[in-house]
Structures are given as C-alpha cells and as structure tokens.
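Pasting as-is:
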Amino acid sequence: MAKRTGAGKVFGRAATGPLNLSVLGGAVIGAVALASWPIAALGGAAYAALVASDVSSAEFRRRVLFGRSKPSALPDPRTLTDPEVRAAVERVAAARGGLTKVVKSIPERIQRNVTAALAATDELQSHTAVLAVRADALSRYLAGIDPTAAQREAEALTARARNTADADARGSYEAAAGAAHDRVATLRDIATARERALAHLARIESAIKALPAKLVRLQALDDQASDALTGDVGAELERMNVDLRAFEQTLEGIAEVNA
C-alpha cells in the first residue's frame, strides 16, 4: 500500500474523526428514519464543514503530521558544551523571535494564508532542538578521543600483522587491526555527522530569517499572487523538514552504534 502524503494523512484523519463521523452518521440515520433527503444533505454539509475546519487548522495539522501539539522547546544554550552548537541555537532562537514579531504585525488575511508555512517552522524548531542535543553529544564524545592516535594504532597493528611470521599471531593481529580501522572509520563518521548537523542548523537559521521579508512582501501582492507565493514557501519548508527527518534517523543510527 502506498504511503499517504502529508496532505492525504491530514485529510484522512479529519474525515475519520469521531465527532465528524458522528455528525454524518446521525444525519444518515435521521434521513433514513424520516425518509427525508434534505436532512441527509444538511448532515453532509455539516460533515464537510467540520472536515474543512480540521484541515485548515494549523494545530490539527501539526498534531497529525508531527505527533505533537506544540513544537519542542529549544535547549538552553547554557547546557550545550560545543560553542558552535550553542551559537547556532542562539541564532535560531533570535530568528524565531524576529519572525514572531513580523507575524504579529501583518494583516489577519495574510496570517490566515501562512498558517501551514508557520506550522512548518514549528517543526523546524523541533528539528533544531534534536539536532543541537545530538550534535552536542557527538562533540562531547569526540572531545575525549584522539583520532590521530587511533589512526596510528590501526596502522601499527597492520604493520605488526604484516611482519609477523607466525600464522596464528598474524591472524590475531589482523583481527585487531581490522577492529582498529573500523574504529577510525566510525570516528570519521561521527565527526562528519556533527559537521552535517551544524550545516543543517545553519540551513534552518537561514530559512527562518528569510521568512519575515517574504511575509512583508505578501502584503503588496494580490490574493492570487499571494496564494502562489505562500504555497511555494510552504512547499520549500516541507521539503526541508523531510530532509531533516531523514538526517535525524541517520543520527539515531550513529548513536545506537556508539552507545
């Protein structure tokens, strides 16, 4: 079975909501009992209105798509030991603050049009929280490791294996060298994951910083152009969230290997 898209998932949850189905079911039962199709029509209209209300609600979409009603809070920068991670969190927090000020200042019609995009920035904040905590954990681990020494150890074991005449000893040295080289590769992966996390944090910061100007620009556009730009912004943020979800899964795998 094909996996539902975000829009399909939201619509499906709204269409099968208990309250919405009870309204529809009550109308059908009443129509059958009284042999009145107008009652069925009114019930159907009420059901459609309830579904539309849910689908248009940013809070409802957030619960369905992200499994939470509110975005995860950013970690306290003072709890982060990596200076680069700490600075990234502070910059994202400042960008969010600037966005909030602009949202409050724009007309209500614009605010209604950008609810989906704003919900996407809530998920970006949640990704920031996850990336920052995990990147900081990777940094703490790497702080106690000397990658150069690990590389030298692996090379020394390889040389011992190559220069040992005894077959049994050579086999043991080769196994030790293999494990040592695996450790070096894992350390390299951890360092790469930390760097990628920092890059994603910079991407989140830039995306949020770009939104206030786009929101202000919407005020100068007609409704059709405004809707088109809003859709483009929302789609761009959703693509970013998809990329970040995939990267977080990669970080989880690294954490499990090094637990």
